[in-house]
Amino acid sequence: MNDHQKLIIRHRLGIAVQKLVLQNMQDASGETVDSLRQLGVSADIEYYIVQKISSGKKDPQFTTLVSIAAGFNIPVSDLAAMFQTITDEEALMQIEKQKRDAKKKAAKKK
Fold this sequence. Notes:
75% of the residues lie in helices and 0% in strands. By secondary structure, the protein is mostly helical. It is globular and about 45 Å long.
């Protein structure tokens, strides 16, 4: 597996985490994780790590994935199933958007 393929996989995972948070936001029970910050607390993971994973900037260890699934109160297999629904094209779109945003941010600093 080359670095580009790994980048796509990281972003697919990040999108999967984002989609699980969005699904939970639509759950009216009020007992679900509906933000990345709340996921960090629920999964006992530092917020900045959750944020980096959700943006595809961090390649988590398996134990971190288990903690994330536990934070959502779902089995790891459900997290993996959500990951499988994300296409490489979706990941590539997120990567391109992050690149554009970084360029805009750099241009504002000048």
